[in-house]
Amino acid sequence: MISGVWSCQDNSRPNYQFFPNMYEPVGYEAYGEYEVFPNSQEALLPVKGTIARGYSLYDYDNTNEGYDAALKALKSPLSDNEIDTKRGKELYDIYCGICHGGKGAGQGKLVKREKILGVPSYADRPITQGSIYHVIYYGKNAMGSYANLLNEEERWQVTAYVEALRAELLK
Amino acid sequence: MEIVSKFKNQHSPIVDMKQENSQHPQIKLVFFGILLFSFLFTPLHAQEADPVKGKALFNANCAACHQLDKKMTGPALRYVETRLSEDEGLDREWLYGWIRNSAAVIKSGDTYANKIYNEYNGAAMTAFPQLSDEDLDNILAYTAQDKPAPVVAATSGAAQVNSEGGSGLSKDIILGALAILFALLALGLFLVNKTLRRFAAANGVEVQEAIKRPSLWKAYVKNQFLLLVTAIFFLLSSAYFVYGYFMQIGIDQGYQPIQPIHYSHKIHAGDNGIDCKYCHSSARVSKHSGIPSLNVCMNCHKSIYEVAPSTATEEYSKEFYDAEIQKLYDAVGWDDEAQQYTGKTKPVKWVRIHNLPDFAYFNHSQHVSVAGLECQTCHGPVEEMEIMYQHSPLTMGWCINCHRETNVKVEDNGYYEKIHEALSKKYGVDKLTAAQMGGLECGKCHY
Q1: Residues from chain B contacting residue A2 (CB–CB below 8 Å)
Q2: Judged by CB atoms within 8 Å, which residues 197-236 of B form the interface with A?
Q3: Do the domain assignments include residue A91?
Q4: Are B405 and B433 in contact (CB under 8 A)?
Q5: Three-state DSSP class for B363?
Q6: Nearest CB to A22; choose among B275, B277, B357
Q7: Do B61 and A144 touch (CB under 8 A)?
Q8: Bridge partners for B446 per DSSP
Q9: How far is B378 from chain A (nearest CA, A)?
Q10: Residue A140 DSSP class
């Protein structure tokens, strides 16, 4: 009999609940499915033409010309004592190290395991802080954009860290 | 056929002349010239160009945008040299120029260069001025190699099927043989028994029946004390199980739903060591960890369109995994052949696993960024999970226990300096647990 009860337990279904009205949310939960939203999908993109608080517009286009312009003209808004190498490293190790490697020599774990190829060493490219930021923002060819994972300030912290790695590699 | 024979006809006179009319100096010279030419060139390409070195160079420089047999950011490059010389009449020099600096070739007004540049929507190929002629020859030698993969795959596949079929067959045979053996044994026993009985009957031996004794069961029913004890025992134990049953209601420990895409944390976070926060990026800064949106997946899966054969296990084949990646492509609307987004998307409906009741508040950034806890303390060995399940009970007792045991990380946190001083004086300790800092107050978790 006991085994009969146990066998009713099925790990691919959620368990029963007492009085679920205290458990189920009344408001809309993140990632929920509600009819008021288009496609019933609660997760939405920001409305076109709006910008979140604390963010600013990015003036360069996602084109080769935009890249060249950013390469030459774009400068970091962070002053020297705002650059936080510790945090830059932490973020770099999460988001970039997996392909570019901890030292930026293009030897991340995915490259070593031959899952992703053609990741350059930072030393081999004539990059500037402007172009690094531009590439984080839009991505470039096989590399995707990291604009939605890092906020503006974090992107500049990572940029500063990449510059430091590059200087280290060029030594 | 015709062409070949014509060719022969053209050639044979030359050979003949060489053998017989050695007085003709002009023809001799031409022939010598051809010989010299082929001497000069064939060895240069055939010997020095090293496809192995070429492969290394290709992987390091070109593979970000090109593959041999598949369109990526740039065109597929297998047999590119033959293709360009046959279709477009472009020679190796053109290729040198293009690879070293494609932008310059395009600017020079070269028709083919502009055509292909526009075909790829003006994607710029990186310039490689640092590659020497030799490097480029090696790369081109690599692209000129025949494709070995499908042959190998096909034969090994066939071999697998065969061996599987073979082993399946032999298993069946063994099982069948065993069944027959057992049947024979049973038959043998039955026959032996029958003959023995016949002997017994013939010899007049009685087979003894068991002697009847007062039954244990009746004695037991008559003993009232024993009955009482048993009744109490049954009541208690069933109460225990009923209580246990009620206490596990609403707890989803071990909940493991089937997700719309078979996404394996073992392969991503375990084998390939991708950081949890790469995908669950909002855990750093918000209440929710979030499930990554599909464009995050595409950061890698634009390039990873299939799994390596070594990733496949006995349970899940390579075809299975590749089909799952295809599901991802269908969901984001990525056409892998054309290397473009089609714009037709259909959102993936992941099934939510961890879910606290609405009346409890839990915040990831407080635990992950402030307290510096590893995801695994709460979510278990995620990097070993082929399929995600809920590791912890997520009960109040579980939260409270940890708050009682875990020290607050006060180092390097200016926010905590004052409160830490005040509280450690109050409790007379120098390390504070989360509980002492207020982690047991109802209002912190219930609102």
Answers
A1: 241
A2: none
A3: yes
A4: yes
A5: coil
A6: B357
A7: no
A8: B360
A9: 19
A10: B
How far apart CA B379 and CA B283 sit, in angstroms, is 13
- Residue pointed to by tokens 């918000």: B286
Instruction: Give the span between the Cα atoms of A119 and B63, in whole angstroms.
Output: 8
| CATH number of the structural domain spanning residue A71 | 1.10.760.10
Sign of CA dihedral B432, B438, B442, B447: negative
Residue A149 near residue B284, CB atoms below 8 Å: no
Residue A50 lies inside a defined structural domain of this protein: no
What is the model's pLDDT at position A133?
Answer: 92
Domain count for chain A: 1
A chain contacts of residue B60, beta-carbon cutoff 8 Å? 106, 117-118
Listed by number, the residues of chain B in 404-433 with a beta carbon closer than 8 Å to a beta carbon of chain A are none
Residue found under tokens 């033409």: A49
Name the residue among B250, B299, B350 with its Cβ closest to that of A17.
Answer: B250
Q: What is the pLDDT of residue B287?
A: 87
Best A2, A5, A9, A12 member to test B by mutation, with max B CBs in 10 Å, is A12
Residue A140 placed within a domain: yes
> Which one-letter DSSP state was computed for residue A125?
S
Are B249 and A16 an interchain contact pair (Cβ–Cβ within 8 Å)? yes
Q: How far is A74 from chain B (nearest CA, A)?
A: 21
Q: Which of B353, B381, B376 is nearest to B255 (CA)?
A: B353
For A38-53, the pLDDT digits (tens) are: 777 777 777 777 877 7
CA distance A120 to A135: 13
Q: How far is B133 from chain A (nearest CA, A)?
A: 19
- DSSP lists the bridge partners of residue B433 as B407
pLDDT at B10: 42
pLDDT digit string, tens, across residues B260-313:
899 999 999 988 889 999 999 888 888 888 888 888 898 888 888 888 888 888
What domain range is A165 assigned to? 64-170
- How many CB pairs lie under 8 A apart between chains A and B? 121
What one-character-per-residue DSSP string does B250-286 give? T--TT--PPPSS---HIIIIIIT---HHHHSGGGGTS
- Chain B: residue nearest A93 by CA? B275
Distance CA B393, CA B395 (A): 5
Is the pLDDT confidence value at B210 over 70? no
Cα–Cα distances in angstroms (integers) from residue B445 to residues A32, B440, B442, in the given order: 22, 8, 6
Identify the CA nearest to A38 among candidates B71, B140, B347: B347
Chain B interface, best mutation among A2, A7, A9, A11, by max B CB count within 10 A: A11
CB B254 within 8 A of CB B379: no
Q: Which tokens is A127 given?
A: 């990059």
Q: Cα distance from B189 to chain A (closest Cα, Å)?
A: 36
Between the alpha carbon of residue B234 and those of residues B219, B228, B241, the distances in Å are 20, 10, 11
| B331-341 pLDDT tens trace | 888 887 777 78
Would A143 be classed as within a structural domain?
A: yes
Q: What pLDDT digit, counting tens, does each position of B346-393 carry?
A: 888 888 888 888 888 899 988 888 888 889 999 989 988 888 888 888
Inter-residue contact B136 to B99 (CB < 8 Å): yes
Q: pTM here?
A: 0.76
Suggest the residue from A3, A37, A61, A94 to mutate for an interface test with chain B (most B CBs closer than 10 A). Answer: A94
What does DSSP assign to residue A33?
B
Helices assigned H by DSSP within A44-151 = 64-73, 85-95, 97-100, 109-112, 129-138
